Amino acid sequence: MQVLQAPDAVVMIRPHHFCSNPETRDDNAFQTLSNHSATATSEAAMAEFDGAVTLLRKAGVRVHVFDDTSTQTPDSVFPNNWFSTHTGGHVAIYPMFAANRRLERRTDVIEMLKRDYRVQDVIDYSGLEQDGLALEGTGAMVLDHIGRIAYTVQSNRADPVLLERFCTHFNFEPIAFAARDAQGRDVYHTNVLMGIGTEYALVCLDMIVDAERRRTVATRLEQSGRQVIHLTHAQIAEFAGNAMELTGDRRILALSLRALRSLTTQQIRIIEKSAEPLPLDIPTIETAGGSVRCMLAGIHLTRRTERTDQ
Predict the structure, then answer these.
(1) Structural domains of the chain, with CATH
(2) Could you write out the DSSP letters of every residue in the chain?
(3) Given this model, what pLDDT does residue 1 score?
(4) Does 25 have pLDDT greater than 70?
(5) Whole-prediction pTM value?
(6) I need a surface site. Which of 22, 134, 153, 223 has the fewest CB within 10 A?
(7) Which segment of the chain is annotated as a signal peptide (predicted)?
(8) What is the reported pLDDT for 32?
(9) Could you give the CA distance from residue 240 to residue 253 in angstroms, rounded to a whole number?
C-alpha cells in the first residue's frame, strides 16, 4: 500500500495543562475561549486526546505518545508545527512564531526517532528565531510528498526566505499564496484550508486571494492525479480542511467528528474510494484553533526493528 503520502506512524503529545494559547490568539481566528474552568478544560482535552489515540491504534496506526506536563506550553498537543520527518531519513526542526510555542521542542522525541527509525540527518532551523523568522512545519506548509510540492499560505508563520531554504534542503517546490477567510482575515496556517491525500485533495480554493494563484493550485493538484474536493468557507470553519491521511490496517482519513459532519455525502463518497474516514471527537482541543491534523506529526521514516510502542 502507498504510504508515502499517508504514513503508518505518528507522534502525539498528551497535554496535561491544555488551554487556548493567549500568545497566538491575535492571528488565529479559529481560536475560541472555553466556558469551563482551567481544570475542567484540561481534563476534557486529555480525555479527548486519549480517545483519539485509542481509535487510531485500533485502526492499525502506530502512535508514539509523549506526555507534556509543563504549564508553559498550552499548544503542545499540536507537535506537527515544530518538527517534520521525510523519506530518506531526514528530520527538520522549525522556528516558531510565538515565544511559548518554542518551548514545545523536546529532545526525547528526536532521540526516539533516531532509536526506532533510520534517521540520516536532522536539520535544525530553530536558531533563526533569533532573526525573527518562523516556519511552522506542516502547519505552515501542506506537503505533497509524492509530487514534491510545498503549498504555503503567506503569513508571519511562514517566512519566504526560510521556505525557500527548506524546499532546497528537502527537494520540494514552493507554491506560496495569500489566503483570507470569509471575514477577510488572513489565514495563519495552510493546513486549515487544505489537506492532501494519496488520491484526493481537500481544499477551499475560494480562500486564495489571487485568481492566478488559485488556478495554479487547482491545476497542480489536478495534474498530480488527485480528485479535488472543493471545500466551502463554512466547512473550513468546521475544520474540514484540517485532516490527515494515514495508513493502518487500511488507508484512513483522520479528521474531527465536527469536520466529518460538515462534509456532503458526495464529498465523503469521493474520500471513501481510497480511504475510510475516521472521525475523532475533540471539541475542547479545537478551541485552541487547531484540529486533528495539527495533533499528528507523521513519521515518514523507515522503521529499524519491531519495537513496542510508547
Answers:
(1) 9-298 (3.75.10.10)
(2) ---SSS-SEEEEEEESS----TTTTTT-TT----SS-HHHHHHHHHHHHHHHHHHHHHTT-EEEEEEE--SS-TTTT-GGGTEEEETTTEEEE---SSGGGGGG--HHHHHHHHHHB---EEEE-GGGGGGT--B-HHHHEEEETTTTEEEEE-BTTB-HHHHHHHHHHHT-EEEEE-BB-TTSPBPS-GGGTEEE-SSEEEE-GGGBSSHHHHHHHHHHHHHTTPEEEEPPHHHHHTTTT--EEEESSSEEEEEEHHHHHHS-HHHHHHHHTT-EEEEE--HHHHTTT--HHHH-EE--S-B-S-----
(3) 47
(4) no
(5) 0.93
(6) 223
(7) none
(8) 55
(9) 11
Q: Which three cell numbers, joined as nine digits, stand for 185? A: 482575515
d(CA 187, CA 185): 6
Cell of 55: 481509535
